[in-house]
């Protein structure tokens, strides 16, 4: 079940749905879904999916947790999967990501390439999950450019591209020349304004280069599609989910970055970026969210 911005956010929700479509096409599974924006109806829609006899009911997004846990208590024999948050209920499995790791690499790029020494971060809703993006980005910037200033603003929404444009305009007036949004469809507004204003920006969750091909340097890839596909693959193979809690980062290939476009890194900058990636994968660099 999809919540918040839902399909068409060109980011998190679309990535998760892509994984379901690939599983349908390649593994011959069938699925149904609900796209809900009113939190008051989450439980009702989840119960509909349970009553259909689905092997697993997936809640895509941290905002689904309360509803999933309420419904999971009513249906203790039903398996649920919560993506982007963790539950302690025995019949709710969880997949989370180390967003701070990929965001750190985005910050390294911004810190190395900024000319104004001012960069921006735009979050959707101010919750611990989005703070992980902010923390990783800020630490990456400061690691390579201690003098840089990081402007951080939360839009309060994941589905307001106009608000994203307004925030980007404000940051650009403050001389930000690289802006990193972690804000769903709100972030698409940031990408559009960055391109319009001639500065640089970054995609999030999926490769968003095609949304602003003159501005998107790279994207922090959160492989929700891979996670969903692998869950479906395990179900087809074994009929159940083996892991109660799964956390995916760079080492586990759940977090990555898209190809660098629009700008060019020097060989020394490329080596430095690859070195940070290796240290994160090996655990010698740890970002505490």
UniProtKB/TrEMBL annotation:
Domain ABC transporter substrate-binding protein PnrA-like span(s) in chain numbering: 1-286
SUPFAM superfamilies linked to this entry: Periplasmic binding protein-like I (SSF53822)
InterPro entries: BMP_lipoprotein, Peripla_BP_I, PnrA-like
Gene Ontology annotations for the cellular component aspect, listed alphabetically: plasma membrane
Subcellular location, record wording: Cell membrane
This protein's record includes keyword Membrane: yes
Keywords for this protein: Cell membrane, Lipoprotein, Membrane, Signal
Membrane topology, record value: Lipid-anchor
Family, per entry: Belongs to the BMP lipoprotein family.
Name of the protein described by the UniProt record: BMP family ABC transporter substrate-binding protein
Organism: Peribacillus deserti
